[in-house]
């Protein structure tokens, strides 16, 4: 699997770190985790899940039939947990470095309001 992980992949793994989820549950959780910035369509999600299963990062947890349709639940594999932890640490270090540098930037000066005659 590529490193760094693309954001949708990172969010899918993050969603599955909580509990096993089926497709619609994953779409909903990824949207929630990203504050609505990432919207997965079913075709995109299932293609990503196939790749993640092939890479050993995600496993099928169980299946059930709901309204005569098969619902497959996925879970994070141990290798997926290791990959997610490593990516989270990489991102944490990047955020830490950026935050430290931003603290050194001069703060922008806000313009002072000008008083006009007659105001006290």
Automatic annotation (TrEMBL):
<dbReference type="Pfam" id="PF03551">
    <property type="entry name" value="PadR"/>
</dbReference>
<dbReference type="InterPro" id="IPR052509">
    <property type="entry name" value="Metal_resp_DNA-bind_regulator"/>
</dbReference>
<dbReference type="InterPro" id="IPR036388">
    <property type="entry name" value="WH-like_DNA-bd_sf"/>
</dbReference>
<dbReference type="InterPro" id="IPR036390">
    <property type="entry name" value="WH_DNA-bd_sf"/>
</dbReference>
<feature type="region of interest" description="Disordered">
    <location>
        <begin position="99"/>
        <end position="120"/>
    </location>
</feature>
<dbReference type="InterPro" id="IPR005149">
    <property type="entry name" value="Tscrpt_reg_PadR_N"/>
</dbReference>
<feature type="domain" description="Transcription regulator PadR N-terminal">
    <location>
        <begin position="12"/>
        <end position="85"/>
    </location>
</feature>
<protein>
    <recommendedName>
        <fullName>Transcription regulator PadR N-terminal domain-containing protein</fullName>
    </recommendedName>
</protein>
């Amino acid at each position: 699997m590529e490193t760094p992980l693309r954001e949708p992949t990172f969010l899918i793994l993050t969603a599955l770190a909580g509990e096993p989820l089926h497709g619609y549950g994953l779409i909903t959780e990824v949207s929630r985790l990203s504050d609505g910035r990432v919207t997965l369509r079913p075709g995109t999600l299932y293609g990503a899940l196939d790749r993640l299963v092939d890479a050993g990062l995600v496993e099928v947890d169980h299946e059930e039939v709901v309204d005569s349709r098969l619902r497959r639940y996925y879970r994070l594999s141990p290798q997926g947990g290791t990959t997610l932890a490593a990516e989270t640490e990489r991102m944490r270090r990047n955020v830490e470095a950026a935050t430290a540098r931003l603290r050194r930037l001069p703060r922008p000066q806000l313009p002072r309001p000008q008083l006009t005659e007659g105001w006290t």
